[in-house]
Amino acid sequence: MANITTPVFTASTPEIFASFPDSRRFDPALKGPDPAKMKAFNESKGQKQFAKRVFEPANGVKGLNDEELKAKPDAFAFDEPRKRVASAPVAPYVISLGRRLGESAATKQ
Predict the structure, then answer these.
(1) Phi/psi of residue 81, each to 5°?
(2) Which is nearest to 2 in space by CA: 96, 97, 106, 90?
(3) Do both 69 and 97 map to the same domain?
(4) pLDDT, tens digit, for every residue of 35-87?
(5) Which domain holds residue 61?
(6) pLDDT value at 19 more than 80
(7) Residue 107 forms beta bridges with which residues?
(8) Model pTM?
(9) Quick one: 89 and 103 in the same domain?
(10) Are residues 5 and 57 in the same domain?
């Protein structure tokens, strides 16, 4: 399983979407983005929307019992994903960051 950790943001209108870069623009005097502008963008409606990311392998979730886990090498959690990605194509999928009642958390393509 691979995860590209690009910043994700959503907006309810094109105007809000277009204002996002300005809220993150580097301010030389502050040596970084202006926290007040970021806060104004992030909390413009006075509320926050938290999201939970769910990642599942395209071929299903498979667990290991205690005996199987003990038989694996110490670096299993690091080496195994690399081997899998190298030996099979990565399956794309879309993650829903907020859903309506009845919609699934991840819609696989």
Answers:
(1) -60, -40
(2) 90
(3) yes
(4) 887 777 666 666 665 666 667 777 777 888 999 999 999 988 888 888 887 88
(5) 51-109
(6) no
(7) 94
(8) 0.34
(9) yes
(10) no
